[in-house]
Structures are given as structure tokens and as C-alpha cells.
Amino acid sequence: MVGGDRALREKGLHITDIPPGLVARVPAEQRGPGLGRDSVRLLVSRGAAEVSLHAFRELPGLLRAGDVLVVNTSATLPAAVDARLGGEEVVAHFSTRGPDGRWAVELRDRDRAARGTTRPRPGGPAGAVVELPGGERLVLEEPLAAGAERLWWARTSREDVPALLHAYGRPIRYGYTERDQPLSAYQTVFAVPGADGAGSAEMPSAGRPFTAELVAELVRRGVQFAPLTLHTGVASQEAHEPPYPEPYAVPATTAWLVNAAKAAGGRVIAVGTTAVRALESAAGGDGVVRAAGGWTDLVVTPERGVRVVDGLLTGLHEPQASHLLMLEAVAGREAVRRGYAEAAARLCLWHEFGDVHLLLKDESTHTMNC
How far apart are CA 78 and CA 170, in angstroms? Predict the structure, then answer.
């Protein structure tokens, strides 16, 4: 799969660069008095025919009784740790714990010009020893994938890496944000700490605007919630690579809720691209979801299509992001193009603390692509 921007442009889907000033630099609740997490805006695309802008708090009135929201319960880890490689200060981003106990990590240089942020650096070399806080060590072994030098498999001297992260780490922060935030700012209302300490290197951010009160109102109106788990790895803000394999689990109760909703004519709406990836990984060619888990390498593209998902609630992605192909698979090329043009025109905010986009299939014309 080629990079997101190139693939989109080859298909005739042109997404503009993020307009200056439209990056969310702090969480919504820090932008003014009386604001909460749900004080973001909600762009709604109903196929390519209609685009409208709402307050996120209006979501209950935009969904229907019988709809199911599929949410990712993965908790965010404080995955950035100060470290040393030789005599050099670096930051280790812990991405994903592999089935053999190794961790995929990305080493980054400190950005002295923007305090608290980092810059990309060459990966490796193999055998390099990274000194971690508390006297722990990290030994780089090999790139995560052939030809991809950013993430490396590494072994740690400490078996309980999540405990190390909670003792010395902080949330991964990118340069477009204004300042460091506490870990609580990166947890969604759906987050459930893993029994083994597992979690996501980066927040499943589509769920961030939800509050307990909004969830209660949605349930009161007949919207159901179906949980699953997918632990997200480190997404490079520079490389715009397709997603790597990630661990996921779709429980039997979620499979039952989704299948029952589909049978009754309800819509299945994924909260975030991670929920799409996990749910579609658990769906058979017949569109039936079954309890499943393990590792998924699924990349959802327009050619593959979606078998289960009728809608997607997600943030606004950069023009090079491979996630845009997933959006096109759910809602269609023209719906994505028109939605992003409207987002720019209406001064919506990008990134994890920004506004959100609900893409719904055009129910009058859509046919399932299996």
C-alpha cells in the first residue's frame, strides 16, 4: 500500500493541507471557562449529498434508537520515556508489546526549540543499548518490518514495562500541541486499564469528546454501546505509514450486539478508526461478526470495503494519512472530499484535541462491498 496522500491523489480524491491556525493545540476544556470535553464541534456527512455542522452535544439527536456505537476501551499509556543512547539524550516511544515479550519502540531526538516535543531520528543500530530511568536498559534488535527503520523490536531488562512507563513516562506529545498534558487528558471515558497493564501508545482519540452524561443520554434514547479493544501503536506524524499489526479483542457480547443491530435495521457506527479495524477484523465474508482476538494486520481500503460498519465517528486527519482511505471505504470518495472542504471552510480544528467528523453511508444508494 502506498502512502495515504499519494493513493488518494491517484484516485482523484484531493484533500488540502491543514489550513493555518486550525490545529487544536490544547484540549477543549482548556480553551475557556465553562467548557468541557464535549465542547467541540461535530461535522456530519450523510453520503456526499449533505454536510452539516453541529455541537458535539447534539449527537443524541442525530442518531436513532437501535443504533450501536462501537467503542475502543484501550487505556492510554504514558509511553514516552527520557533515555540515553551513548552520550546522547533521546526519548523512547514505547509502541507495542509483541507476542514474544519484545517491545516495538521508536527513538526520537529532543527538540530543543520546542520544549517537550521531539524530532524523528534514524532508527537503530542493531545491538545498541538504550539507558532507561531506574537503571533499566533497552537493547535494539531489528526493525519492525523490512525497509521500515523507524520502529525497532527491542528487549528490556525489566519484564513489567507498563510499571516502568507509569513510574517514569508521560504521554506522547507532538509539536503541534502547546504544552505537556497530564495522562488524564489522554484517557477517554471508555478506557479500562488492562489486567496485564497493556494499553495504547496513543489515545483512541475519537472517543475523547464523550462524557458520562452524554453516554447516559445516548443510552436513554435507545443507542447502545458495544466495547472492544485495540491497542494502538505509535503513528509517526512524519512518515504517514499504513498501520502496523496491532493486538485486538472483540468479545462475544459485542459480536452479538452488532449482529442483532444489523438484523433489526440499526446502524453500526464505529467510534474511531481503531474500532473499524478491530470490528472488520472479526467479521467474516458473510458480514457476521464473531468473537475474535489476537493480532490484526488489516488495512481497510475502498477496494476491500467494509462489511459491518455503517458509519464512522473520527477526528480530522492530515492529508497524507492512510486513515483517509478507510474513511472513503465507509462513506465514499466524494463524501470525504466534500466533508474536508467544509471542515476547512467552517474553521474546524484538527488532531486529537480537535473537532470530530461523523461519516454515514448514503443509505439511499449504498450497497455492501464485500
Answer: 4
* Cα–Cα distance, 359 to 108 (Å, whole number): 34
Three-class secondary structure of residue 282 per DSSP: coil
Separation between Cα atoms, residue 270 and residue 308, nearest integer Å:
10
Site of grid cell 455541537: 55
Cα 125 to Cα 339: distance, rounded to the nearest angstrom: 43
- Considering only CA atoms, which of 67, 78, 139, 117 is closest in space to residue 360? 67
Q: How far apart are CA 97 and CA 137, in angstroms?
A: 16
pLDDT in tens, 77-102: 999 999 999 889 999 999 999 999 99
Summarize pLDDT for 122-177 with one digit per residue, the tens. 888 999 999 999 999 999 999 988 777 889 999 999 889 999 999 999 999 988 88
Which grid cell is 238? Answer: 512524519
Residue 16 half-sphere exposure toward CB, CA atoms < 13 A: 12
How many other β-carbons are positioned within 10 Å of the β-carbon of residue 52? 14
Q: Which residues pair with 126 in a beta bridge?
A: none
Q: What is the mean pLDDT of residues 273-279?
A: 97
Q: Tell me, what amino acid is at 263?
A: A
Nearest to 224 by CA among 63, 37, 58: 63
Residue 284 grid coordinates = 467474516
Scan for cell 533497552, then name that residue. Answer: 138
pLDDT score for 196: 87
333-345 vs 323-331: helix crossing angle, rounded to 10: 110
Amino acid letter for position 81: V
Give the phi and the psi of residue 57 in degrees, each rounded to 5. Answer: -65, -15
Q: What is the pTM of this model?
A: 0.91
pLDDT for the residue 28: 95
Q: Look at residue 238 in the predicted model and tell me its pLDDT.
A: 54
Question: Cell for 205?
Answer: 482519540
Residue 242, judged by CB atoms within 10 A of its CB (0-12, 13-18, 19+), counts as middle
Residue 356, H or E segment: strand 356-360
List pLDDT tens digits, range 29-47. Answer: 999 999 999 999 999 999 8
Residue 229, all three cell numbers: 479493544
